Amino acid sequence: MNPDILTRNNVRVSGRGTQPMLFAHGFGCDQNMWRLVAPAFEDEYRIVLFDYVGSGNSDLRAYDAPRYSTLDGYAQDLLDVVHALDLRDVVLVAHSVSSMVSVLAANREPERFARLVLIGPSPRYINDPPYVGGFERQDIEGLLEMMDHNYIGWANFLGPAIMKNTDRPELGDELATSFCSTDPVVARRFAEATFLSDNRADLAQVRVPSLILQCSDDMVAPLEVGDYLHREMPDSTLRVMEATGHCPHMSHPDETIRLIRDYLQPAAVA
C-alpha cells in the first residue's frame, strides 16, 4: 500500500465485499458525485473512490501540467490507485471522460480489471463524418474560449445544459458549483484534453467485458456515439437508459444502480 498515492488522490475505501469496485468521476467533478450510487454496492463489493489530481480534495501540489495535458496522465492516476491498493479483478465504473481514461488504463493492464461500466462515454466529441460526435470543432473552441474569458459564466451555462432535467434545477446548480470549485487553469487544461481527444483507435483493443450506459437524450454523448462504441468494442453490452442528460448517476441513480446490477449479476452467479 502506498500512502502517498492514497493521500494524493484522496482515496476512500469502504464496503463489506472483497471484489473491488472502483469509481472514476468525470470532468469538473469529484468522488462525491457517486454518493447516490456507490453505497448500493457496499454489501457486495469493496468500494474505492478517488479524485484525480487537480479535482476534489486531491493534493493540488502534485499537479503537473505536461502529465495532465492528455488523458494518459489521468489513466496513470487511475492505475496508481490500483497499484497503491494492489487491486485485482476490479469492476471499474467510470463517468463521461473517465470512460476513455478507463479504456486507456484497461488496455495497459487488462489483467487488473474484470468489467468496465462506462456511463455516458464518448471516444470523440467532435464530428468527423461519417462519425457523429455531437459537436463541431468550432463549438468546442468556443467553449474553451469562454472558459478563458468568463469561467464562472461558462460553468453556470454548461452545468445545467449538461445535466438537463430542468424540473430539478438543483442538479444543474450542483454541477456548476463543482465546476466553479475546480482551479480554472486545471479545469481548462482538463477540458482541452477531454474535448479534443480522439480515442476511437483504442476501442478495438479493449479486452475487458464492458457495459455502455447511454442516456436517451444527452448533448455530450448522443445516441450515435453509444451505437458506435458498441460496434467498435469487443464484448460490449449497450443499454439505452430512460434517463436524460449526461449524469444519470446523479439524476437517475435508481436506474443506474439497477442496470449495473443486472449486468454484473450473471458474473457474480458464475
From TrEMBL:
Superkingdom as given in the UniProt entry? Bacteria
Cross-referenced Gene3D superfamilies: alpha/beta hydrolase
Q: Which residues form the AB hydrolase-1 domain?
A: 22-258
Q: Which InterPro entries match?
A: AB_hydrolase_1, AB_hydrolase_fold
Family the entry assigns: Belongs to the AB hydrolase superfamily.
- PANTHER family reported for this sequence: ESTERASE-RELATED (PTHR43039)
Protein's recorded name = Sigma-B regulation protein RsbQ
The source organism is Longimicrobium terrae
